[in-house]
Design brief:
Elements: H1 10-18, H2 26-36, E1 41-44, H3 51-65, E2 72-77, H4 81-94, E3 101-104, H5 110-119, E4 123-126, H6 128-136, E5 142-151, H7 153-158, H8 162-171, E6 176-182, H9 187-193, E7 201-204, E8 215-221, H10 227-235, E9 243-246, H11 250-262, E10 267-270, H12 276-288, E11 293-296, E12 311-314, H13 321-328, E13 338-344, H14 349-359, E14 364-367, H15 383-387, E15 393-394
Parallel strand pairs: 1-6, 1-7, 2-4, 2-5, 3-4, 5-6, 8-13, 8-14, 9-11, 9-12, 10-11, 12-13, 14-15
């Protein structure tokens, strides 16, 4: 199937061809006709499968067909600034002349965003907090027909944005098309989302909570005090090209970045306490290859869309199992293979088990002697693994000096 077969007009299919996109991904193949038909949708697909284009392309086509639009016709809500910026960039890349798009996000200057709203914009890509600021100032004017997109909807609800989303839903046109897109969709999220949708089409191209299929997953048991040394040992390997390291806290990210800089690693960090300009600069440097290690908290897990991330390292195991899926989904993108490595202590093993229960996959354990990861039998995950003679694969890498 080609993009032409999905009902897209030449101004979009030609742009796809010019950018090297010849065959739609499964989520695009299933979702685009539904959105073009004006139906509400709840779509779930693993990360790196082209969800953004699955709603951006049909939305742009519908906007181009509506010559009488006045005010903003599309609102796309994103959980993070990074994801909002990347969605806005995709809109601008595909949009024909005459269709405008503006990002309304925290951490960026008010004046530029105010001027954009005064000029008028067809599409707003926003984080909920900053959008409500402008709503309170009476600066938003919505048009009909209207389209509301919740991108990474489960993450927004996990981050506590449900009250903000409900408040936003009250002021946008009641006559609207609502699109839910996410990499995971739990039963609880579905229960919350269903009242906001009108007879939605359910589109699911991968099992819920399933990790990206092109990602090789490995877990390294380690003593808490040896995590940093093990990380440095891993980074010394020649096949580590562009690495994304996830920590649980902002302080942990800062501490780890300082250590890596002292060891002459080209690294940077991104988290909620960094200014928007610092976050954008860190992402840009990482994308261009000026730095090869980017340390991030989960605030960035949904906003990093870089095809060439070779490895994701979970320095800390995420407390929320869904976050693991999104973290490792930053590698193995656009048809490329990737590797995900998790460093876990005895105290974090319950989180590892929760992740394996969600994904339905047992992550291979690799024991590296000398790092304090020799767990007693009682801590070996899974009843079957507990009775195995060799629960871990063992090898001896080069030690960091």
């Amino acid at each position: 199937m080609s993009f032409n077969d999905l009902g897209l007009l030449p101004f979009l299919t030609d742009k796809c061809a010019a950018m090297g996109f010849t065959t739609p991904t499964p989520i695009q193949e299933k979702a685009i006709p539904v959105v073009l038909a004006g139906r509400d949708i709840m779509a779930c697909a693993e990360t790196g499968t082209g969800k953004t284009a699955a709603f951006v392309l049909p939305i742009l086509q519908m906007l181009a067909a509506n010559k009488t639009r006045r005010g903003t016709s599309v609102l796309i809500l994103s959980p993070t600034r990074e994801l909002a910026n990347q969605t806005e960039a995709a809109c601008r890349e595909f949009a024909p002349k005459g269709i405008s798009c503006t990002a309304i996000i925290g951490g960026a200057g008010y004046s530029r965003q105010i001027q954009a709203l005064k000029r008028g914009t067809d599409i707003i890509v926003a984080t909920p907090g900053r959008l409500i600021d402008f709503m309170d100032q009476g600066m938003l004017k919505f048009s009909e027909p209207f389209c509301l997109v919740l991108d990474e909807a489960d993450r927004m609800l996990d981050m506590g944005f449900l009250p903000a989303i409900k408040r936003i839903a009250k002021v946008i046109p009641a006559k609207r098309q609502t699109l839910f897109f996410s990499a995971t969709m739990s039963n609880e999220i579905e229960r919350i989302a269903t009242p906001m949708l009108d007879n939605p089409e359910f589109v699911e191209v991968s099992a819920r909570g399933k990790a990206a299929t092109l990602v090789e997953q490995t877990a390294y048991p380690v003593a808490a005090q040896s995590k940093t040394v093990l990380l440095l040992d891993l980074l010394a390997k020649e096949d580590f090209d562009r690495v994304l390291v996830f920590t649980r806290t902002k302080r942990g990210a800062d501490r780890l970045a300082h250590i890596l800089e002292k060891r002459e690693h080209k690294s940077n960090r991104i988290h909620g306490d960094r200014s928007q300009s610092q976050r954008e600069a860190a992402l840009r440097s990482f994308k261009l290859g000026h730095t090869n290690v980017l340390i991030a908290t989960d605030v960035a897990a949904r906003g990093i869309d870089i095809d060439s991330v070779s490895h994701v390292i979970n320095y800390d195991v995420p407390e929320v199992p869904d976050d693991y899926v999104h973290r490792i989904g930053r590698t193995g993108r656009a048809g490329k293979s990737g590797r995900a490595i998790t460093l876990f202590t005895v105290a974090e093993e319950h989180s590892m088990r929760a992740i394996e229960k969600l994904t339905g996959q047992q992550v291979e354990r690799v024991l590296i002697p000398g790092f304090g990861g020799e767990l007693p039998a009682a801590h070996i995950p899974g009843a079957k693994a507990a009775t195995a003679k060799k629960p871990y694969r063992t090898f001896r890498p080069r030690r960091y000096r």
